[in-house]
Fold:
Amino acid sequence: MATAGFSSFGTPIVVREEAGPLPPLRLAFTIITVILGLCALVHASLYLLFLRRVRGGARRGPVLAVFAAYAAHLVVHTAHFADNIARPVDYFEPWWLYRGYVLSTMEITFFANWPMVISGAVLIGPLLKSLYRRLHGVDGDGGRASKVSSVARRRRLCWGVVAYASTSIMTLMHYVVEPPVSYAPVVNFTIAGEGVAALVLGLVVAFNMPSMSSSSSLEGDVKQQNETELETLAGEEHDHDDGTKSQTTISIDGARWVVAAMP
Structure:
């Protein structure tokens, strides 16, 4: 039976749990959280290895930087959530987050982790691929219009990963419950470490994000190219018409008649 209390800032928290092993569901929550993080890391690693095998080359610094930042963030994030689920008392878990509503205690933290990890895993692979294509000169093989589409897609992926990293800033909400000095060093490492890792990931991805000016320039080039092609086609059609027929305007009793004469 858990005991509720109040934090230094007056927030209702869990202050004590029964001694002994973790309840079966809580243990399952902890193990599944670790497995989910490992699956996401393996997914990103396989994506990177596949791209290296297909593309090769030495120009992969930005790709490795994004992958390293993502992997570091994912490891600290997974450690934080798994440890938080297993030891909520050490994290001064707010009572409303601790209590069980359907399955078991700490179920909110467990289920909230799923969309965060999955969204990051879904975004990071295509982003690594997009960066690889840009670095190896195959960004937009179909011409300028295709390149504009690739740049726009890469920007959306970058913003998605930045948004994913931003969700980890919520981990600092622990310090709204208790000041940092109240937590053990390992707990402070997972809390603050996840926040710092999220900030680094966001900055690395933002640094590799295509600028709005470059995209606008490409779109302008495509628009100008399309207008030039239309003008060329119009000129050719006009020349063709001039070579096949001529028109004569005749006025009869105030009415205007157009007569087309073939050469």
Notes: Strands lie at 3-6, 12-16, 246-252, 255-261. Residues 3-216 form one domain. The chain has one domain: 3-216.
